[in-house]
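Sample 3 of the quickstart, ligand S-adenosylmethionine:
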Amino acid sequence: MVARMAFWPLLRVLNGTRRTRSWAELKLLLRDRLLPATATRSKDQNPPPPALFQMATSYWVSQAIYVAAKLGVADFLVDGPQSSVALAAATRSEPSSLFRLLRALSSVGVFSQQGKDCFALTRSAEALRSDVPGSLRDILITVGEIHYQACGELLHSVQTGKPAFTKVFGTNLFDYLQQNTDASEAFNRGMTNLSSLLAHAALLAYDFSGIPSIVDVGGGEGELLRKILELNPEMTGVVLDLPDAVESNNLAPTVAARCSHVIGNFFDSVPEGAHAYLLCGVIHDWDDDPAIKILSNCRKAMTGDGRVLIVDMIVPETNSASFSKLLDLNMMVMTGGRERTKAEFHALFSAADYRVTRIIPTMAPQSIIEAVPK
Ligand SMILES: C[S@@+](CC[C@H](N)C(=O)[O-])C[C@H]1O[C@@H](n2cnc3c(N)ncnc32)[C@H](O)[C@@H]1O
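Result:
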């Protein structure tokens, strides 16, 4: 990098800017150019823009990932690398635009550009494939569509405290999904992508054996419950959800005899008489009052020795990096929900007349928060 700056011009610029306001700007430029990890940059790379600008424009990357997911590009690379022309024909795209998309995504490691116009899968791109273990394709599609549009109105949420989703789409998220089949299918399949990744982490962290019956409240397509039931052959289960999610249920024959899907509204009631009520990615959809209502309905319905298991992220109390703090913004715009700290979970449960018995971290970003009636 130093080779890009001749010595005398540098001295001249330093001298000229020393007593002016542009000195501060120059200082920033030099700091950004000289201090960050420039050592690994090869000769044909441009210097990167300031880190803040890269952060602010990271939606270019997120939308490029969305488009690749939507077009299903990765599925056409399973048998080996392909040219953008071949991929454009397969995905019904315009070749030179698809080339630019894949070149950009290769530059950040999502695909790999081999030679001038040949693209291959990478480990990240594997997750863009459909219907493979670890697939994120469906969640990336829903995130790139409705979540992205709602996030475009984050300012509205911060100024009003209301979910931007309603401003953008004219109704709340879950009503919208009931009325829009394509969006609902993408959302429900996307949730299944995530719960599929989470399920083993939850099963490794928490001993579900000995629980005779469980209700997965807002359980979506039933992926998490399916895996719990597969490993616990004595257990029976119920998935409670809204009509759109129940209609796209995913119950495998291995557990179908021990599990049912029930349509219902958890603000009215939840199925009675179970020993555990599982709420995975549900409580963070809601602000405190509705969350307390759901927990209270579970409390009314459960057996005397029943328990609630929330599966959500825990927000660290300190100023540390945590995905939970960004997901919290997503909940703010999508539903008016929130991610919570440990203290906030204790307060929430207390308000619903429970006490927290354990908070168990998992190998996934989520923890399991166990609570029993007070
Ligand atoms: C973020 S998703 C989580 C889905 C699932 N638990 C998982 O982890 O994959 C929230 C779920 O709550 C359901 N839901 C929202 N409002 C509901 C209500 N009033 N009654 C029942 N289910 C509801 C949604 O349909 C959706 O399936």
